[in-house]
Amino acid sequence: MAVPKRKMSKARRDSRRANWKLTVPGLVECPQCHEMKMPHRVCPECGYYNGKQVIVKEQ
């Protein structure tokens, strides 16, 4: 039965587990201000989500 000869450090173990995400999330264009934003989130530029103003932004 194979047994590790030395204890693997937490940093080495955690760095191995940290790189599972393969692609970056896609961005979509905001229909109000046409800036790029994360999908299904309030636009950080204009504060609109789903055609309604959720956050009042000062311009």
From TrEMBL:
<dbReference type="GO" id="GO:0006412">
    <property type="term" value="P:translation"/>
</dbReference>
<keyword id="KW-0689">Ribosomal protein</keyword>
<comment type="similarity">
    <text>Belongs to the bacterial ribosomal protein bL32 family.</text>
</comment>
<keyword id="KW-0687">Ribonucleoprotein</keyword>
<dbReference type="InterPro" id="IPR044957">
    <property type="entry name" value="Ribosomal_bL32_bact"/>
</dbReference>
<protein>
    <recommendedName>
        <fullName>Large ribosomal subunit protein bL32</fullName>
    </recommendedName>
</protein>
<dbReference type="InterPro" id="IPR011332">
    <property type="entry name" value="Ribosomal_zn-bd"/>
</dbReference>
<dbReference type="InterPro" id="IPR002677">
    <property type="entry name" value="Ribosomal_bL32"/>
</dbReference>
<dbReference type="Pfam" id="PF01783">
    <property type="entry name" value="Ribosomal_L32p"/>
</dbReference>
<dbReference type="GO" id="GO:0015934">
    <property type="term" value="C:large ribosomal subunit"/>
</dbReference>
<dbReference type="GO" id="GO:0003735">
    <property type="term" value="F:structural constituent of ribosome"/>
</dbReference>
